[in-house]
Amino acid sequence: MYSLLKPCKTTAAIEAIPRERLALNLDLCEEILKKNCTIVANAGVMLIVNDRCEVSIHRDGRLILKTDAAGLAEEQASRIAGWLAGSAAVRKQTGSGNAGQHCRK
């Protein structure tokens, strides 16, 4: 589900960008993820969870993983993708957008 992990220039974190444009239903994501993660906050525009590291999940599918360890970030992104895969919480979008614009280059 995630093809790119890159260091975030504005904070000590790693950004995971989905391979395809997504639209996440964060309320459904919360219901699914609360079985495996601690829900920190659901602000409507982003869901913050804590598993092996704190993760901000955005409606466009981007993840901001609060760690500077690439291996941990990759593992955590994979875990979240696995929990959400095939669920009604994830819809694929068409067209272009601004995925990946949260962390400035």
Question: What would you say this structure looks like, in words?
Answer:
Strand 4 (38-42) and strand 5 (46-50) form a beta hairpin. A 6-stranded antiparallel β-sheet has the order 1-2-7-6-5-4, covered by helices on one side. Strands 3-8 form a two-stranded antiparallel sheet. It has 105 residues and is α+β, with helices and mostly antiparallel strands. The relative contact order is 0.29. The model is unreliable at 97-105 (pLDDT under 50). It has one domain: TATA-Binding Protein (2-Layer Sandwich), CATH 3.30.310. It has helices at residues 26-33, 70-84; strands spanning 2-7, 14-18, 22-24, 38-42, 46-50, 54-58, 63-65, 90-92.
Summarize the structure.
By secondary structure, the protein is an alpha+beta fold. The chain is built from two helices and eight strands. Mean pLDDT is 86; it is low at 97-105.
